[in-house]
Amino acid sequence: MSLPAKTVSTETGRTYKLGRRIPVAPAPVLPLARYLYRTLPTPPATCDYTAKALPVLAQMLGNDSLGDCTAAAAFHIAGVVLGNAGIPVIWDDKKDIIPFYEATGHYVLGQPKTDQGANIVTVLNYWRFKGLPNHKIYAYLAVNPKDEEECATAIWLFENLYKGIALPDIWVNPAPEKSGFVWGLNGDADPNNGHALPSFGYNAEGTTDCTWALLGTMTWPAIAEYCSHKNYGELFTVLSLESLIKATQKAPNGFDAEQLMHHIQLLA
């Protein structure tokens, strides 16, 4: 039986919720590397897709009072993809976020005991087959957290990573209170600290992540360690129509979108 979503606090007493359920076993997911070719251009040294989506990234999306981090990450990704496609969006907690959390995490509004978080793959499948308001994905692919270039390529091509992490206790004791935080390799992954968060950029230090309406950095060594299966981690990139079109323009001979869509149809 799942436990209620865990609450973490900042130094001044501000509170957030965790809420990613740790998977019992890794889910079988198509790997991104299968669709990348040697002709793929090397991703640029830095990349940042946050500028056109700062208003939506500043939205907490209920994750201060609900363990809906899996939903918040999905809506932040959709907001960034749409913002960079020239379709800025602001989500409504009551109309958009909570219904999605109810559908994917079995949360019941007004019943705190049902606030038990959600499984990332459940969220991704619902996003693919049912969709978010104004946004649907075609696929999600597994990314190798130990391959820095593959992680950077996923962000460069598709504008996102979707991370499932068992946060080290030092990252949330206390939790960050302002943007600019850096989460580095420090301590053991704690399965009681299940959290989901997206990435929208990278540089030599690591990825640019959004959590609790804050922007910060997760270092490359931390990603390699904490996003790995052995430490209860998961790492995906999601593909929508907008990002697929851009990806084929950026790397027409390096990313096999046609083969990917064929495999997706076989799995449908």
Walk me through the structure.
The protein is α+β, with helices and mostly antiparallel strands. It has a single domain (48-267), classed as Cysteine proteinases (Cathepsin B, Chain A). It contains eight helices and ten strands. Strands 3, 4, 5, 6, 7, 8, 9 and 10 form an eight-stranded mixed β-sheet that branches. A two-stranded antiparallel sheet has the order 1-2. Strand 1 and strand 2 (15-17) form a beta hairpin. Helix 2 (69-84) crosses helix 3.
Write the layout of secondary structure elements.
Layout: E1 7-9, E2 15-17, E3 47-48, H1 54-57, H2 69-84, H3 93-105, H4 120-129, E4 137-142, H5 148-158, E5 161-168, E6 182-183, E7 189-202, E8 206-211, E9 214-219, H6 220-226, E10 234-240, H7 241-250, H8 257-267
Parallel strand pairs: 6-9
Antiparallel strand pairs: 1-2, 3-7, 4-10, 5-7, 5-10, 7-8, 8-9
Helix pairs in contact: 2-3
Low-confidence stretches: none
Question: Beta fraction of the residues?
Answer: 15-25%
The named CATH superfamily: Cysteine proteinases
What is the number of helical segments per DSSP (H or I, 4+ residues)?
8
CATH C-level class: Alpha Beta
Q: Roughly what is the average pLDDT, rounded to an integer?
A: 94
Radius of gyration: 17 Å
How much helix, percentage-wise, in residues? 25-40%
Number of domains: 1
The class by helix and strand makeup works out as: alpha+beta
CATH domain topology: Cathepsin B, Chain A
